[in-house]
Amino acid sequence: MIIKTLNRSEAQNAMKEWVLTYPSLPEVGEDYLKIRKVIQDFNSQVRRECNENMSRKDYYIDVHIGILLYDYLWHVPGFNLRAAANDDFWRYMSIKVIPDVVAERWGYDNESHYWSKPARIWLRSIWWYVHLSWQGDMKTTANVLESPYFTTDSILNLEERTGRKGTFINVYRFIMYYYSHIPQQILAQYNKNTKTQQDDLFRIIMKLNTAKVMVVDPALYLGGEKEYVRSLFLDAGVRV
């Protein structure tokens, strides 16, 4: 696969064309036709597993399409972390390759989830949510992300807390692991004592990390990144 991209102006024009021709799909090369079919099948598979009464249905869809997309793209020749970090690649995927899948989740004319706001580009968002939460294999990662404590807000909270010194990926993965294993009664009591929803434990841990990495290198912390993350929870008043 040759990595194809759309810059902001190209994406804006392509989006207008997609809206005008909806629900027809754009023409793409053979490689991307194959990718389109595979991701469409992922989408159908995950949605078959859902029902209208499922709690956190949108989160379930985001996580499970994200995990399947994450695993699949790593097996596509030519895809790499550099492509994953390129917003223009996700714009191309969103508007040219599988706009129908994005439309089923966000509507066919929701520009922010196709191209205009990088942190909100849906495919980019769910891929990186899985990458930053990865626990070594699909099943273990799914077990962590299926924790009842995570919601669609968690996806944004995890990705939008990148500090000025970059993202310490293993730190994020330990945060997700430990948070998913906090006993429900402890978390419920903690959140009960907060003043607003903005003060829940997950947000506080992410804020603490953003501040702390400015003065502490997690890899050099006594005990390494794992103990660094445990110290974040301890600072917030929770022992993990």
SSE layout:
Layout: H1 8-21, H2 30-49, H3 57-74, H4 81-84, H5 87-97, H6 99-106, H7 111-116, H8 122-133, H9 138-145, H10 152-159, H11 169-180, H12 184-192, H13 201-212, H14 224-235
Helix pairs in contact: 1-5, 2-3, 3-8, 3-9, 8-10, 11-14
Q: Whole-number radius of gyration?
A: 19 Å
Strand residue content = under 5%
Low confidence ranges: none
Helix content: 55-70%
Shape: globular
Number of strand elements = 0
Distance between the termini: 43 Å
Order of helices and strands: HHHHHHHHHHHHHH
Number of domains: 2
| Largest sheet properties | none
* Residue-averaged pLDDT: 92
How many helices in DSSP terms?
A: 14
Supply the helix-strand structural class.
mainly alpha
Features:
single chain; 240 residues; mainly alpha; 2 domains; DUF6339
Structure description:
There is one protein chain. With 240 residues, the protein is an all-alpha fold. It has two domains: 138 residues, no CATH class; 80 residues, no CATH class. It contains 14 helices and no strands. InterPro entries: DUF6339 (IPR045920).
In short:
The chain is mostly helical and 240 residues long. The protein has 14 helices and no strands.
